[in-house]
Amino acid sequence: MTAQKNPVEMLMKWAKERPNAPWLFQPVDGQWKPYTWAQAEAQVRSMASALRALGIPPGSAVAISGRNTAHWFFADLAASMAGYVSVGLYPKQSTDAVRYILNHCQAKAVFVGPMPDAHEFAAGLPDGIIKIAFPYPDLGIACDHQWDDLVKNSEPFSGYTPPDPKTLATLVYTSGTTGNPKGVMITGENMAFATTGLMRTMPASGQEKFFSYLPLAHMFERGAVELASIYLGAQVYFNESIEKLAEQLREVAPTRFFGVPLVYSRIQSGILKKLPNEKLDRLLRIPVLSGFIKKKIKTGAGLQNARYMFVGAAPMPMPLMKWFEKLGLTVLQGYGMTENSIYATANLPKANRFGSVGRAMPGADMRISEEGEIQYRHPAVMAGYYKEPEKTKETFTEDGWLRTGDKGRVDEDGYLYITGRVKDIFKTLKGKYVAPAPIEGALAKNTDIDQMCFVGTGLTQPIMVMTLTPEAQKKPRAEVEAGLIADMAAVNANLEPHEEIAKCLILKEAWTIDNGMMTPTMKVKRNEVEKRFLPLIEKHAKNRDKVGWE
Question: Domains in the chain, ordered, with CATH?
Fold first, then answer.
């Protein structure tokens, strides 16, 4: 199963077949500026020539930074057309990570896009790297070249020859909850196999419309939005800023929506802010009103046209999925990792099983090892970690299967269930192991919780460390405590004694990417929670209160 054309060839195909059809919509001063397929191809061809003219050696790494924009796509395709390896950088990447990645891949140039904290990003840029500014105002970084000038002064690239599919196409650096990021080597064959499988299972229906806001440096957004839009001929609207996400999602009303659990949780909070749960449940029980309420909520959230609503990057709590389901919004949980091009399993509209992450995608060979680890072997699995032969060797079994580090089980119908992380399992002072993920998922039915992390290393009994949603922070403490204690008791009733939640510790400080508590893909850094809050955890472990506040 191989794609007939690579992404650059697909761009050329659409530019020829539908030159005047809009592909990308970039927000500029509150207006959507469209780029047609022909305009996109012209930008890409001219920039490919410009990169060559800058004297960058063939096969070199070229980095792309900033939030999601039309020019992120153009830069990625131009680098590919010119024979370079693209390397995505997160908009909120730390200075140390920027420096490490650019030095590690020996990037010769970096495209600079709009981003917060540009001064921190600039501090990580190595001496001598060529800086090319995307055409957006107030980038905050002095650059050697301007995109528009290079495009205007360069002849369109001609004579493109598709590379060998096994050639390195892009380096995707894992955001990582520990240690330095690892450069996952993704080839043209990897991308083609994954995208072709995606098209087979989720074909286009009419004019598809995507909303791009998750980081393009991550393989999830790269595959599900950028690559999928190129192969499906779908339109893409870019989010201008996180503050405008809810407003612009309503404007766009995409046919496919992709999010991480935290995004769905925030959508839920926004709805409950206007319509509290008790009132919502009461209205949904009234037959005459139920359909009207559901339609109004869907339209208000911008999800009325979404044929597919996917969640990935981290497990979504079952209570949150069921909450959306009662509104007639089915959130489909999928599973994958950068190392297998996010091509593993997915639930589908007519084949959805709650609690699972779906069945294997076409051609995605999967097995569960004797230790319970989920493993894969298929053409979308990475070529390895860049310049890391030892880590690559550790990540594959002797017979060539990718170790995911996740534990799971498969039911009789082939649905995969994630039961925890091999490395996340901790041992309490009682000498018994605890898998935190399922317990966190069970307590997530409490809608006052924003983020949580179950810890127990060095403790007699595990503690759930958490932060509250902005709405919950305004509630009386007694009300929040009563809800947590009741939900904690319900969760504990189904656990072994050594697994039970001893208490909930509520922290005042929010966990964000900025303060290092979350990865750029919005996963909680478990080791960082344990390290940073260890004194508080140990202090609260000594008293018997069911809820502690800091």
Answer: 7-202+210-229 (3.40.50.980), 426-549 (3.30.300.30)
